[in-house]
Design goal:
Length: 220
Amino acid sequence: MIAYDSILFDSDGVLVEPPAFETQTEAVRAAYRELGVDDPDQRDVDALVAGVTVDRLREICSTYDIEMTSLWDARERHDERSQFEQFRAGSRDRYGDVTAVTDLDQDCGIVSNNHHSTIEFVLWFFDLEPWVDTYYGRPKTIESLGLKKPNPHYLERALADLDAGSALYVGDSESDVIAAHRAGLDSAFVRRSHCSDVALSTTPTYEVSTLQEVADLVAD
């Protein structure tokens, strides 16, 4: 068993339930409406829900003759608002097994593709601030799209904060596994219900079903 100095976690799908696709879709449509686009093509809606690249964003803005910064700012504001509303309404919650990792001896951190401000909200709302030693989400900027996982940028920043000699990254997507390996970390893929059937092309160091299994893996 490898002894880890630090444990890093993704947030959505690992610590808290992922946002509902329908909620994200409505947030994107609200962003389009704000800029006068009342009936965008569904493909252009889906692109902004997740995984959009800078080039694809530029193409969309050219199609509707709107400024990139204006559309992205609106997209991020409405998406953030919708997430806060879901948490406050109780329609999105923390996973019950988070308590299995909040007493680990190792330093712990969060690295997410979600907004940095949303991670701050999650830590505050679920009273997780005392547990976390460092955390990174992305700023709500176009430039941040290039720094999302599988880019290991924010994982490497978290590792530098923790001065970790060895660390494990716990995620729920292939991009999490790839980012971990690019950063020189072991990875644990959590097969929650939303990713139970996902076929990975990259092999994680561990596959688990719960965070209790993660706690057992890293126990001194």
